[in-house]
Amino acid sequence: MVSQQRILEKLTVLKEQLKEEGLDGLIITDNIDQFYILGFYFYPGETVLLLHEGGLVCFTRQLYEAPLKEKFPFVQIVGLDKERAAAAVAQAARLGLKRVGFDAEKENYITGSLFKASGFVETGSHISLLRQVKDEAEIAVLRDSCRIAYETYEYIKPLIKTGMSEFEVAAEMEKFMRIKGASATSFLTIIAFGENTANPHHETSHRKLKDNEAVLMDFGCIYNGYCSDITRGWWHGDKEPEEYTKIWHIVDKARQSGIAAERPGVAAQKVDATARGLIAAAGYGDYFTHRLGHGVGMEIHEEPCNDQTTTAILKKGNVITVEPGIYLPGKFGVRLEDTTVITDTGADILTRK
Questions:
Q1: How far apart, in whole angstroms, are the C-alpha atoms of residue 183 and residue 249?
Q2: At what angle do helices 136-156 and 166-179 cross, to 10 degrees?
Q3: Which segments of the chain belong to CATH 3.40.350.10?
Q4: Is the pTM of this model over 0.85?
């Protein structure tokens, strides 16, 4: 659980952001944002938070009321099993709040319409901005999450045999991650054999592994609320084609160059261009069909991203993937991915022991 001091620090920063935007209140309905603030996981649609200068009001299911009052004595807890958004609107009126913001990008149509009709203001995602820069405690958890993912790769690689299905491999990996303490996978585990490795977002299937073909696995876990993400690929068998060897080393060099380009103050677009340029110079530019990387945190895809259109400038504490790939349709593909954290002077790979 997030300490009371850390919660209050986050709320103080949020209040300062609200003042800068001329707001005297903020509605928070996204359950991941709520988890970031309080360190307590609500399921989607269960809770509405109202932040104002005087404190934080939590409208949630009645079954949470007693435990939350004990955990968060500094938060006003209101137990309601329905109409929680309407209750938040009424509370804002009672408090005399004049300009309450809500994150329109994360709001559903019905609740967003209610907030707009009540005079609330569509605003940017203040909490998403905070979540982009991880503190030391968050980085420590992310490091553990990524370590579990890496250990899973080390565990599963020697166990993979001809005749195993993609589903069988995924199941064994997910069991291992659970035993190591993961609560879930970060996303649907991708295991690809043969020609399936040429599909960047292949859906794991009953397809069985044959002798002498490519293997690709893209996976991660959620540990203490934080995601990990790693991709590895190799040739299964002793007759590795020259072209597979060639593209594997190009992709690995692109991965290393992308990580080497990451540091505070560097444009994320430049990081993408560094790795992408290397692949293009090798003659495979048309076969690298996605962005170089994305932010990772409480969700598997967060900002900032290493891509061709972003305006983001990397900051210390950003956690971001570098995952170049080359995909030859009908033949095979290679993607190699690490999750990294931006440090004072560069980037540190988290997906390792």
A1: 34
A2: 140
A3: 4-131
A4: yes
Q: Which two tokens stand for residue 209?
A: 């592994």
Alpha carbons 51 and 111: distance in angstroms, whole number = 17
Q: Which CATH number fits domain 133-349: 3.10.20.310, 3.90.230.10, 2.30.130.40, 3.20.20.80?
A: 3.90.230.10
Residues of the chain with CATH 3.90.230.10: 133-349
Q: Which CATH number among 3.40.350.10, 3.40.190.10, 3.40.1190.10, 3.30.365.10 corresponds to the domain 4-131?
A: 3.40.350.10
The tokens describing 109, both together, are 């149509």
List helix spans (H) across 21-95.
Answer: 31-38, 62-71, 84-94
Assess contact for 148 and 220: CB atoms under 8 A.
no
Concatenating the DSSP letter of every residue in 293-318 gives EEE-SSSSSEEEEESSS---B--TT-
Q: What pLDDT, in 10s, does the model give residues 82-105?
A: 999 999 999 999 999 999 999 999
Mean pLDDT confidence for 293-311: 96
280-296: buried (b, 16+ CB within 10 Å) or exposed (e) per residue?
eebebeebbeebbbbbb
Buried b (16+ CB within 10 A) or exposed e, 211-231: eebbbbbbbbbbbebbbbbbb
Can you give the pLDDT at residue 91?
97
Backbone torsions φ then ψ of 207, nearest 5 degrees: -55, 130
CB 114 within 8 A of CB 74: no
